[in-house]
Amino acid sequence: MSPDLSTQTSNKVSDKVIAKPNRDLSWRVAANLWISFKYAWAGLSYAFRTQRNFRIHVIVGSLAIGLGAFLRLSAVEMSIISLTIGAVLAMELLNTALESVVDLTVKQSYHELAKIAKDCAAGAVLISAIAAILVAGSLLLPPLLTLLQSTLR
Length: 153
Hints:
Keywords: ATP-binding, Cell membrane, Kinase, Lipid biosynthesis, Lipid metabolism, Membrane, Nucleotide-binding, Phospholipid biosynthesis, Phospholipid metabolism, Transferase, Transmembrane, Transmembrane helix. It is found in: Cell membrane. GO terms for molecular function: kinase activity. Its main location: membrane. By secondary structure, the chain is mainly α. It has one domain (32-152): Orthogonal Bundle (Helix Hairpins). The chain has 4 helices and 2 strands; from the N terminus they run E-E-H-H-H-H. The radius of gyration is 22 Å and the shape is elongated. The relative contact order is 0.09.
């Protein structure tokens, strides 16, 4: 278990022991830049470990960067591909955050507004992923087709 989810203290209520998660610092503002980066890394690590689609986007994005480097795309083209990959990953992180907050709010019950919020966040990820595919396709396909044609001749 991660340290912020481990049991720190417990209260005895009648004959039950209720465990409190160690979330002492979860509400505080980071004291310095290093702590801010630590929190951000914790979010990225959480998303990578728990979110299948985040891992898929990381793998596909890495392949696109690798293919762009192999095809020797210009710095501007590589920057555009990198920015679109970054946008998709950022949207996936926001989607995960929103889903967590909605789940925290509605607990195990169904609520139509919770469904709308989660579906819209997922839709935002989908739109950014489609845009990234279009951008990468327009930048990677022409040189890739040229390379394939020259190899087949």
